[in-house]
Amino acid sequence: MYPRKPAQFLSIDGTTIVDGCLAEPDRYRVLYDRDETNPIIGRGSGLSYVAASMGKDVLSIGMRHFDRLLSFDTETGIVEAEAGISLGALLRFLLPRGFMLAVMPGHPNISLGGCIAADVHGKNPVRDGTFRDHVLSLDLWHPRSGLRRGGPGSVIFDASCGGYGLTGIIVSARVRVRRVEGVKARLNLTPVKSFDEAHEILQQRAASADLIYSWHDWTKPNRTSGFVVEGAVLEEQGTAAFTRTAALQPRRGFPLMNRVTIPLFNAAYRFKILRQNGAVLPLPEILFPLAGMGFYFRLYGNGLLEHQVLVPHDRWSAYWPKVAGLLSAYGVHPVVSSLKLFAGPRKGISFAGDGVSLTINLVNDRRGREFLEALDLLDCDTGGVANPIKDSRLGKQAFGRQAPMLMQFMEQRAALDPNGQFRSCMSERLGL
Ligand SMILES: Cc1cc2nc3c(=O)[nH]c(=O)nc-3n(C[C@H](O)[C@H](O)[C@H](O)COP(=O)(O)OP(=O)(O)OC[C@H]3O[C@@H](n4cnc5c(N)ncnc54)[C@H](O)[C@@H]3O)c2cc1C
Question: 86 alpha carbon to ligand 1 midpoint, in Å?
């Protein structure tokens, strides 16, 4: 049995509080516990928006002590590391040697294990795919079957990449990293009048951009002006300073986002990113824009709702005006609205595929929730796929309709975790 202590967890989006237990093994002898029969779930840095690494009466196995870089081959660009290592630590090691991870989500404290288990995406999924595309093998621990290694094509690998921790504990992994010419990038902003214009530009440029996405001010439902933000890595060496790596602690605050302040927030953000047009910035600053902005989450008071949905390209221009109609009908004002393009096939139950992804952040209140219930139906009718690890209220019905490979995943999971020992708030919510 793991040594444990009771713990109350709060999800980063501030929507979910749950009582569970936490164990943080600090050596393999303790991690490899074959006697544990209670419900458990792996935990990286706890930076998922939703309650994915915690559950009611569930023991979260925190992996922060397993944070060593095990090997690196400069010829092949293959790095092997323990699952608890953070992206920031990996980047600090790799950048001075002319390498970086191809896919990096937006906070330096996110762990390698969390990236694999959530099959995360970075700042240009068209060119870079999702995290699993760069993983060569992983080592998975399960109290029932012990330690096993799996590579692409094996059930261990396929179900654990984007398996949301439900197949076992990822102990370590081998990942192919990418050569990078320099440690800084130039940002260029292209103003756009609408989502459609942004979509067109993203389609033209995404295949060759180092990073690319768009930001929009959608505080008025029928106005969607904004910028396409594009970054090009420069052949400039030096140190890539990590200026703001403050830990992101989930905490609720006094609610400051409302229909008066949201337009002001958007105007301020527009001003901030406009000043970055043409700027040369260290890569970490571009990759992790929210690194020093823990207060952002607290501005929502009672939590934020993020909805991220991947919509087929040919349906996009008909889809977003319907979303605008729902925003008007429910009187909801998105705080952040952003587009990224994705390419490639669906992969298991993870957030991947071909299309344009829309991300919006809303205040967690009754109107926001009712709006998102209506949006779930629109997503399903449009062939959209919502990201289950971003939206804490996405239910099993919508998720099931949007995940054609769900049955296959459930079979693989049953083979790896026959008693359903691994579970979390997220798995309960999605019926996994
Ligand atoms: C500021 C910010 C920006 C973000 N930007 C992006 C982005 O651009 N793209 C994107 O895709 N996501 C993004 N995310 C979401 C984040 O990348 C994922 O939710 C990621 O999984 C969090 O990793 P973590 O180490 O915090 O894991 P946790 O939140 O602790 O866990 C996440 C999931 O992984 C599982 N897990 C973690 N470690 C292990 C392990 N060792 N073995 C087995 N299972 C494990 C957990 O059980 C859980 O299901 C962002 C989050 C934040 C807070």
Answer: 11
